[in-house]
TrEMBL record:
It comes from Vitis rotundifolia. Its cofactor is heme. This is Cytochrome P450. It is found in: Membrane. Gene3D superfamilies: Cytochrome P450. Belongs to the cytochrome P450 family. Keywords: Heme, Iron, Membrane, Metal-binding, Monooxygenase, Oxidoreductase, Transmembrane, Transmembrane helix. Heme binds at residue 171. Its main location: membrane. GO terms for molecular function: heme binding; iron ion binding; monooxygenase activity; oxidoreductase activity, acting on paired donors, with incorporation or reduction of molecular oxygen. GO terms for cellular component: membrane. It is a single-pass membrane protein. The keyword Metal-binding applies.
Amino acid sequence: MQLLLESAINDPNLGQASSKRFIVDNCKSIYFAGHESTAVAASWCLMLLALHPDWQAQIRAEIAEVCGDNMPDADSITKMKWMTMVIQETLRLYPPAAFVSREALEEIQVGNFIVPKGVCIWTLIPTLHRDTDIWGPDANQFKPERFENGVSKACKFPQAYIPFGLGPRLCLGRNFAMVQLKIILSLIISKFTFTLSPTYRHFPVYRMIVEPGDGVHIRIQKI
Ligand code: HEM
């Protein structure tokens, strides 16, 4: 980001107004794409773990095993298998990004459909992620174990699991987001137990991102 901003300021080909607009646009993109989505994903993870103390305990044990008394690092993060499954399942049930969109730059055929030039196709991620034909009758349940043998074994078509999109415009920050989520959750779960507060109201809302409408209220206790 810093490199981008410095090169925009120093680029003689961009006028002052253009370089300012370029900088503001990029700050907005990174703030929106890179901050809110991960923060909201962390909130959904905490909500689901508060509801499922068994998974909370499982992950706590895993963190103790792979980190010991140390902070999570690049090595221990790759060993967090149960943690990865919980995050994957959270992103399946509550994908922060509600859709991915593509515009046909020329007429194309997709399966039996002819898509005329200029048409935009929106793929609704939550709909794909909860389709019982793809995920089975328990599609609406929180079951991280479905990811135990990877995405391809969790559902009928791996292309149906797209919390970070798919193809050449796949989320640029996917790996970074997963690392951030693992660190945040490890630090919280290793020090606290938590349950959902009775004041929590479950109503996911779409505000550019699908987020908990009234936040996530949890009761937290130091271990
Ligand atoms: C849990 C967190 C995140 C989720 C669920 C998420 C989801 C997505 C989705 C669905 C897309 C559209 C992909 C497509 O059209 O196929 C996207 C694009 C993008 N994301 Fe993320 N994202 C997350 C975190 C981040 C982070 C941390 C960053 C940067 C630090 C980031 C940067 C971007 C950028 C730059 C794009 C546009 C890529 C392009 O058009 O080539 N995202 N993200």
